[in-house]
Amino acid sequence: MNQAEVTKLISQLKISPPTRLRKFRTPRGPEGRLDTLRKTVTALVKHERLELNRARALEARMYTERLISDAIRYGDCHKTTMEMADYWLIEKQLVHKLFKVLVPRFENYNIACTRIFYVPRNMTDPRYSKAVLELRGNPYPSLVRDTSSNKNLIHNILLEEAKKAYRTKKYAEIAAKIDAVESTVGLENPTTTESDGNK
Amino acid sequence: MRLNSLYRCLSPKIPTTHLNIRRFLSLGPEEYQRQSEIFISEQKRQRESLGRIEKIDIQYEGPPENCNFVMNKNISTPYDCAKHLGEKFKNGSVVALLNKNHLWHMHKPLPDSCILELLHYQIPNPHVVNKVFWRTCSFLLGAVVSDAFKENVEVHLHSFPSPSVKSGSFVYDVQLNLDNWDPTKTELKVLSLEFIKFCQKEQTIEYLDVDKNIALEIFKNNPHKTKQIPDIAAHNGDKITLFKVGPHIDISRGPMLPNTNHLGRVTVTNVIKLNTDIEGSPVYRFQGVALPKVINLNHFAYGLIEERGKILNAGRIPNDHGTLNEDNSFVAQVN
Amino acid sequence: MSLSSLIYRLTGTLRTVERAFLLVLNGKYPPDNFRLCLDQLQPQENWNNSQINSHKGILEQILGDGFLFAVPKHRRTIEKRLKRKYGDPEYHMKILLPNKKLQVCNVCGDDHEPKTLCPTCYKKVIEETRAMQDAIQNELKLEPVEQEVVVMYEGEKDSKPEEFWKGKRIVEMEKPRPQWFSDNLLQKTTQKGAETSDVKPSNLG
Predict the structure, then answer these.
(1) What is residue B253's three-state secondary structure?
(2) What is the pLDDT of residue B231?
(3) Fewest CB atoms less than 10 Å from the CB: which of B229, C29, C30, C79?
């Protein structure tokens, strides 16, 4: 069987999943683990930004990504997707949000739709490291300063100049090509015009 | 420091007549020694001539909090103020801004009470900082080039045009007694490595204002600088601003970076022969690109920048007359 | 065999008992095995008798009433002792060490560990976020969410064109927009901040 086809059966995530899933210590076993993650995924879709323990944030991120990418891929008329949405979103008003708000928002993204930041450790109890998990495009103030969009930073200026130089080179090439074509056409044309003139 | 590979590549082309005039060259340890001695003695003299120490009140504005420093007049520098703020400010500040309008070299003594701000690379509007960075890169390129060749290659630094990041590369114009030298990839790589090694020495860039005569004495073996000095002095109140990094001294309006360790990635991208009417040996334009250490860029994007830096820089090409011009780096750049 | 050994052991025991009695009668201390039973025989005042004390061994003179704890049998090497005391630099150091891996925030100048957010800036943002989340949840309640939510601060209604608010669920915050929080999320925070703070109070008044 063709391997390339198999990889397209599920949607490819834009984050790199770990090789092994994390076990959360619960007395209810694997179901308990999924229950805790369901709560987190529901809360993330509801609030769009959460502060969590680092392991929980990293784990919940994968399930959220999968849920949203499936919703984008299949839409709300797909039975399995709807079942998954029903399972992962405990509060049912959020199923509407998933298909009517998040799908249009992330449809054209070519990057992951969640984002994770590590929160500074509390130095009085540095054992637990926390993280902030958020959906992109949320209405809250940004957690980091945007450095890439500042056109005045030195590397951005240099890259802009490199882009300009590349474009002028390409335009020159295209112009040269057009000139070459025109000259060949022009070589043919004069003979006709001359013949016309002679007539 | 001598480049064996460069020497090997270049030595067959070198005319034997130039070997006889080695003692007139502007390079070599003796020349560096002589220049440094004059510089240091003048620095010492200026420091001693201060006399009684007066106090000035510096108002610092910016993170972590606004505060006041009581510093010594004409002795304390913005760098000393940054030392009080912490190690990160000491190492990360690029240039000082006095009274919100005047850029000030970090190692230049403060003459009067003022409002002080310290600028870094990631301020919202960093074009002044970029200019300082680019100018320092040109200056350091001069330092590297003047030391990179074997002694039988005559090197005379000419000048560098006004720093412009938009031109895609920083530049130093140098007169070399090599006819039609077309550098190979290896030679450029060696030059880049020399540049990196030079930056890794973490040398402070010192500042000194000197009289015209002292400047002429320092640059007496450089025909171009000797010509330029009277013009510059006439426009600058008979003073010449000198910068010194390691053994190398150069004229520039400044300001510069406080230390060479600010430079992260550095590449000498190209050396192009210029068409000028300067008499003597041909003038070559050394071009390079660099990024500050705090700005991380992936190698692909940096490769694009390097490619761009190979194109001949559009900066003003030096000629025999009229060294003083709007875009010449020696002219005052108030920014 | 067994009989002879029994006789041998009996005679041995008798001999020791006899020796113990002899010692006691001579005013000396009995051997260990019989101390408990013989302690009762000793009159109390005899213990304080200097004559008897002088007959005691040096160890008893020093210890008096005390007793000995268990003590280490073997010397512990200096490396192990130091590791117990200060920890191991490869694994866990018990002493306090300066953290040299720190970065400075470009906005507030606070130190923080690399790859983490700046604590002061983060605190500011997360507090505002929580306030906004509360406001949004108070507004939305349990209805199905079908529109994008936009947060509108006090006095911002007129600052944007009608089209901006169209098709969006508006949640109002009953306070002016913080100075550091740019209203245009696509722009730098520092650029717009000063402007908005100036404009808003005039709009209110």
Answers:
(1) coil
(2) 86
(3) C79
Q: Rounded to 5 degrees, what are φ and ψ at B159? A: -170, 175
Domain boundaries defined on chain C = 2-63, 104-204
Asked if the C-beta of C150 comes within 8 angstroms of chain A's C-beta atoms, the answer is yes
Does A93 sit within 8 Å of C142, measured CB to CB? yes
What are the beta bridge partners of residue A135?
A114
- pLDDT, position B75: 92
Please answer yes or no on whether C116 and A120 come within 8 Å at the CB atom: yes
Query: Do residues A129 and A117 lie in contact, with contact meaning Cβ atoms separated by under 8 Å?
Result: no
Tell me the angle at which helices A29-47 and A79-88 cross, rounded to the nearest 10 degrees.
90
Short-list B146, B204, B130, B184, CA closest to B29: B146
Sort out which chain A residues have CB atoms less than 8 A from B130's CB and list them: 152-154, 157
Best C106, C182, C191 member to test B by mutation, with max B CBs in 10 Å, is C106
Q: Which chains touch A (3 or more CB pairs under 8 A)?
A: B, C
Q: What is the pLDDT of residue C65?
A: 83
CB B144 within 8 A of CB B177: no
Contact between chains at A155 and B168 (C-beta distance less than 8 A): no
The CATH class given to the A9-135 domain equals alpha beta
CATH topology of domain B4-43+128-309: Threonyl-tRNA Synthetase; Chain A, domain 2 (3.30.980)
Residue A193 in this model has a pLDDT that exceeds 80: no
Q: What is the pLDDT of residues B254-304, one digit of tens each?
A: 899 999 999 999 999 999 999 888 888 899 999 999 999 988 889 999 999
CATH of B55-120, one of 1.10.3720.10, 3.10.20.30, 3.40.50.720, 3.30.70.260: 3.10.20.30
Are A153 and B304 a contacting pair at CB < 8 A? no
For residue B122, the chain C residues in CB contact (below 8 A) are 106
Nearest-CA neighbor of B144 among B177, B170, B107?
B170
Q: What CA–CA distances, in Å, run from B334 to B124, B209, B243, C65?
A: 20, 17, 17, 91
**Would you list the domain boundaries of chain B?**
4-43+128-309, 55-120
Is the bond leading into B15 cis (omega within 30 degrees of zero)? no
Q: How far is CA B174 from the centre of its chain?
A: 14
ipTM value for the complex: 0.83
**Mean pLDDT score of chain B:** 85
b/e string for C66-76 if b means 16 or more Cβ within 10 A? eeeeeeeeeee
Average pLDDT over all residues of chain C: 78
Q: Do A161 and B297 touch (CB under 8 A)?
A: no
How close, in Å, is residue C106 to chain B by CA atoms? 7
Which chains border C (3 or more CB–CB pairs < 8 Å)?
Answer: A, B
Q: Give the closest of B86, B120, B124 to C188, CB-based.
A: B124
Pair A158, B295: CB distance under 8 Å? no
Give the residue among B230, B173, B191, B223 at the shortest CA–CA distance from B10.
B191
Q: Does C96 contact A at CB distance below 8 Å?
A: no
Show residues of chain C in contact with A49, CB under 8 Å: 129, 133
| Chain C residue with the nearest C-alpha to that of A93 | C144
Q: List pLDDT tens digits, range A59-70.
A: 999 999 999 999
- Give the count of alpha carbons within 13 A of B191, CB side only: 25
| Least CB–CB distance from C188: residue in A51, A117, A150 | A150
The pTM of this model reads: 0.70
